[in-house]
């Protein structure tokens, strides 16, 4: 039986706005982030979800609670957290090397207490597989982070399919089908807000 996973990035945060590296550290949603979450709620209103999950980070929990309400139960999972950037946490994005630079992007952060990309892919993949293997999980919404979602996407398909078509902005939602232990990327939902 085909199941559906909707993997969403949280709304804009103060650190996003101030261009700060935000992995395991946290910052609150901005007014824009709240509006983005409300737009996502409208975008998802016709989907009947049976289970909800969130990263333990406040920005993800707050985003999900705007969508489902504070009284709807959901599960918080550390495995859905963003990549750990080690000593770079909370620092300016200007210190974050670009993938195409002369630095080995993936090798930098572990030397400063952070994670490798393959570690993020492994924990996200294992976590989402375990979630979707539950018998009563037909339509699942999980709120996570830009880098973590993108890492998971890279294990399913070429992530350039998203990068080259508008990127993975705040409150975008990746839709996957899940069947027989395998994920298949379907599309990306881009909630519109004003």
Which descriptors apply to this entry?
single chain, 194 residues, alpha/beta, Rossmann fold, 6-stranded mixed beta sheet, 32% helix
Outline the structure in words.
- The chain is α/β, with parallel strands linked by helices.
- The chain has one domain (3-189): Rossmann fold (3-Layer(aba) Sandwich).
- Helices cover 32% and strands 19% of the residues.
- It contains seven helices and six strands.
- The protein has a six-stranded mixed beta sheet with strand order 3-2-4-1-5-6, sandwiched between helices.
- Helix 2 (31-43) packs across helix 3 (58-68).
- It is globular, with a radius of gyration of 16 Å.
- The model has no long low-confidence stretch (mean pLDDT 93).
- It comes from Massilimicrobiota timonensis.
- GO terms for molecular function: hydrolase activity.
- Keywords: Hydrolase.
- This is Histidine phosphatase family protein.
- It holds the Pfam family His_Phos_1.
Number of helices: 7
* CATH architectural designation: 3-Layer(aba) Sandwich
Task: Give the amount of beta strand, in percent.
Answer: 15-25%
SSE sequence, one letter per element: EHHEHEHHEHHEE
Q: Based on helices, strands and strand pairing, what is the structural class? A: alpha/beta
How would you characterize the largest beta sheet?
A: 6 strands, mixed
Number of strands: 6
Tally of distinct domains:
1
């Amino acid at each position: 039986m085909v199941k559906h996973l909707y993997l969403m990035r949280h709304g804009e945060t103060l650190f996003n706005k101030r261009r700060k590296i935000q992995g395991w550290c946290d910052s609150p949603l901005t007014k824009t982030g709240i509006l983005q979450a409300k737009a996502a709620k409208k975008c998802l209103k016709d989907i009947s979800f049976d289970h909800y999950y969130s990263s333990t980070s406040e920005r993800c929990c707050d985003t999900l609670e705007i969508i489902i309400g504070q009284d709807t139960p959901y599960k918080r999972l550390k495995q859905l957290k963003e990549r750990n950037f080690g000593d770079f946490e909370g620092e300016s994005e200007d210190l974050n090397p670009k993938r195409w630079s002369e630095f080995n992007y993936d090798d930098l952060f572990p030397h400063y207490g952070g994670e490798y990309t393959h570690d993020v892919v492994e924990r996200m993949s294992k976590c989402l597989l375990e979630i979707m293997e539950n018998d009563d999980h037909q339509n699942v919404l999980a709120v996570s982070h830009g880098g973590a979602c993108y890492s998971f996407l890279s294990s399913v398909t070429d992530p350039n399919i998203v990068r080259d078509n508008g990127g993975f902005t705040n409150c975008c939602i990746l839709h996957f089908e899940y069947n027989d232990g395998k994920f298949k990327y379907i599309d990306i939902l881009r909630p519109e807000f004003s």
